[in-house]
Amino acid sequence: MFKNMTNLLFLTITILSVMIVLNSNNWISMWMGLEMNLMAFIPLISKSNNHLMAESNMMYFLMQSMGSLILLITVMSNNMLMMINITVNNYLNMILLMSLAIKLGMPPFHFWFPEMMSKMNWYKCYILMTWQKVAPMTIMSMIYMEKLMLLLILMSVMVGAIGGLNQTSMRKIMAYSSINHSGWMMSCMYMHNNSWLLYMVLYSIMLLPIITWMTMYNMYMLNQMKIMTNTIMDKLNMSVMFMSLGGLPPFMGFFPKWMVIQYMIDLKMYHILLIMVMFSLLTLFYYMRMISPLLMINFTINKWLIKFNSPKLMSTIMFMVNMSMPLLMYINLY
User: CA-to-CA distance for 322 and 219, rounded, in angstroms?
Assistant: First the structure.
């Protein structure tokens, strides 16, 4: 009972700290919200008393503390310099953007992110991939540096696509997928609008059933995919969810990417868009590598490995949600 109450307390603080950042009108209160978020999330993920969890806690604490420290020093420097010129201001904005990239686990500061993901359970990974990114991204959307943002976008899309190709750990694959999606979200910020929030919401909705499925079947490695999914409906659901996450039409995951593509075409950013779409195809390749054994191999499994606890309602909801893309297109057209 006490353990559950402490978990609830830390989860509440994690949610409220992000709300503080979203509603702040000065840098210090934003920094305070980020620090509260860090201090609440560490006890939340350190429930298991094993060395892997302790390692991931320390990794998260060091990287987030370094990002927060750089952010605070930059903000204080900006206040102390009375007569500030444009060049100094640009440098300070650049450092500020880099500190937020460290906190988000965006390239070239991404090395801690997949490593930390590989040491946690799926639901904690889900919080790290979605909710923990909201606060730094909100602050990032207030800073505009054209060339540096373009560099971060391209690096995120490239590293997220290439990094996941050689992985066998499902959690590391999902971490690199998250880095790739972060690049797409950042491209929304580059275009001066808050559509990255819509992208984040849709990404979170698409990711939740996958995480639930992985937790239910206790999947952590790539070779477990063909062992654990046994019914045709399981295979179909898994395939639809991963293709949706890869942004393949007519599934729901194509909608946020289509939105970004439309914005970038309007701004005539064809070269950047081409690079982003091509690397998005690479992410789709490693999703297809996960689901191809399910679709192509009709194998036999031992009876004691079969689980009959597949939730029918959840399967139906997931299938309907991911197939809702044609409906969204219809609403958009009329």
Answer: 21
Domain count, the chain: 1
**Cβ-based burial of 186 (10 A; exposed 0-12, middle 13-18, buried ≥19):** buried
Assess contact for 7 and 47: CB atoms under 8 A: yes
141-198 confidence digits (pLDDT tens) = 888 788 888 999 999 999 999 998 888 889 999 999 999 999 999 998 888 778 899 9
| Pairwise CA distance, residues 18 & 37, whole Å | 7
Q: What is the reported pLDDT for 333?
A: 45
Contacts (Cβ under 8 Å, ≥6 apart) of 323: 240, 250, 251, 252
What is the rounded distance in angstroms from the CA atom of residue 246 to the CA atom of residue 253?
7
Q: CA-CA distance, 192 to 135, in Å (whole number)?
A: 17
160: tokens are 């997220």
Phi, psi at 302, each rounded to 5°: -70, 150
Residue identified by tokens 């943002």 is 149
Residue-number span of the structural domain to which 59 is assigned: 2-333
